[in-house]
Write a structure and sequence with these properties.
Distance between the termini: 44 Å
Shape: globular
Structural class: alpha/beta
Largest sheet: 5 strands, mixed
Radius of gyration: 15 Å
């Protein structure tokens, strides 16, 4: 039986079919993959904190870092088991830009180093702000690696900060 929470978008979105709970399945898969692969962190992008809560209920061995643009949600997530919230600033429009922000912020916070393996949970495509439907296993890159990979910065991708 699926538990519903007050912030559960499935309970309030009439266009969603609750029998097809993709965010829950993706979150469970991420926790399983994290345990199997021994990743350093599980990173969840969430407007409401729902994705981080879903992953946390499976009690993964890897800590969860929740990126949210809302400071109120970040404060609420501080009370969730195994979750460390970080504010996501900037308006990133594509997947690579979002992953670049993750790499930079995790390194600045001392939560990851280049070469660490992490799992990222998010809704894709980003512009549509969908429920969580994507799990990506990722190796953290340094700012220098990102510059080599993307010498011509695309619109919407924040420039890496010096020393990141």
């Amino acid at each position: 039986a699926r538990r519903h929470t007050p912030l559960d978008p499935i309970a309030t979105a009439p266009e969603c079919d609750p029998s097809l709970d993709v965010p829950d399945v993706v979150s469970a898969a991420a926790v399983f993959a994290a345990d199997q692969l021994g990743v350093r962190r599980i990173v969840a992008f969430s407007q409401s904190g729902y994705t981080a809560r879903l992953a946390a209920r499976y009690r993964p061995a890897a800590p969860i870092v929740a990126f949210t643009p809302d400071s109120r949600v970040a404060r609420q997530l501080q009370l969730v088991w195994g979750v460390r919230p970080l504010l996501a600033d900037g308006d990133v429009k594509h997947l690579d830009g979002m992953i670049q922000v993750v790499d930079r912020k995790l390194q600045l916070a001392g939560l990851a180093e280049p070469g660490d393996r992490i799992i990222v949970l998010m809704g894709h495509p980003i512009r549509e702000k969908p429920l969580t439907n994507l799990m990506r296993v990722h190796r953290v890159r340094s700012a220098e690696e990102w510059r080599r990979l993307r010498p011509e910065d695309e619109e919407g991708t924040p420039e890496p900060e010096a020393g990141a």
